[in-house]
Design brief:
ribosomal protein; mainly beta; rRNA binding; single chain; Ribosomal_uL24; Large ribosomal subunit protein uL24
Length: 106
């Protein structure tokens, strides 16, 4: 299973309690088909104290299914589906992602 969403992409949530929120992908989990988005699906977890931290109840982002988010195009700023096109990036042949609305390659 391949995902067109990568770490650092800006995405918008399509469904669930956080519908309409935008955030940056902190982690992509392609083997599970999930992504962790900043400020979305926040749960409170109890953390034991260690030498490095104080412990207590800490808010953490939980993974959500990649099908519930859409990429936000860096050029036009709209949420979009992603197409793929062969091209060159930094002198290397690669598969580029393309915005279906404005045609921007990234």
């Amino acid at each position: 299973m391949s995902m067109s969403i990568k770490k650092g992409d800006k995405v918008e949530v399509l469904s669930g309690k956080d519908r309409g929120k935008q955030g940056v992908v902190l982690r992509a989990l392609p083997s599970e088909g999930k992504v962790v988005v900043e400020g979305v699906a926040v749960a409170k977890k109890a953390v034991k104290p260690t030498q490095g931290n104080q412990g207590g109840i800490v808010p953490t982002e939980m993974p959500i299914d990649a099908s519930n988010v859409n990429l936000v195009c860096p050029a036009c700023g709209k949420r979009t589906r992603v197409g793929h096109e062969a091209g060159e990036l930094d002198g290397h042949k690669t598969k580029l992602r393309v915005c279906k609305k404005c045609g921007h390659k990234f």
